[in-house]
Amino acid sequence: MRSKRRCIPIRPANKIFYVVDANFLANKRINEKQIQSPSEQGRVISAKKYWSVIDKQLDEGLAMVYVLDLCIAETFKVLAKKYYNNESIFKNHTSYTYAKRKLHEDLHLSSKKAKASVRSIKYHDIQTNRDIVISVDRFFEKACKQKSNVSVVDLMILATSKYLIDFYGIDRDDMKLITQDCPLYELAKSYQDLPVTFNPSYNIDSAEKVFV
Length: 212
Known about the structure:
Rossmann fold; 5-stranded parallel sheet
């Protein structure tokens, strides 16, 4: 039987806090019909199945998505590379601009909403700070020992999830780390004090098996 820790309730008793990486976030705004590679198309489709559930949870106030500020920049870079490297993901500049605008709408909190007495916060960007930077060293040491091919930004995602637990007081069981970066996924799983990590691209973590 699948462990409860490896499942995410569609209608959770407690709010779920998602920490996401750039690839998973970018795939939300990529048109899979324009992708030639079956494997890459599968990655985008699997990500969108997750986002379909997460978006409903966000609309119902059952979840919140945390994104490190550096990951936001990385996400826009992912979209830009796919456009300017002529990967045919975007038919033209209009479709590229549309994807960027929709991503901006996801992440942006207008002044009007920010001033409201009752605010529905779906996405919250986490600013890179001293506590996150310092704790990266811990993850960097293990990554080197395991010869894991992860970037500094990847390690900062792990540090961010630990920061949210320690400084925001979020229960580890209420937090889920979602990444489609395989080395980051494997490294994150090796830590007992980090939230459960999911990779939508893997069959074992497919939306059909994870969301219950």
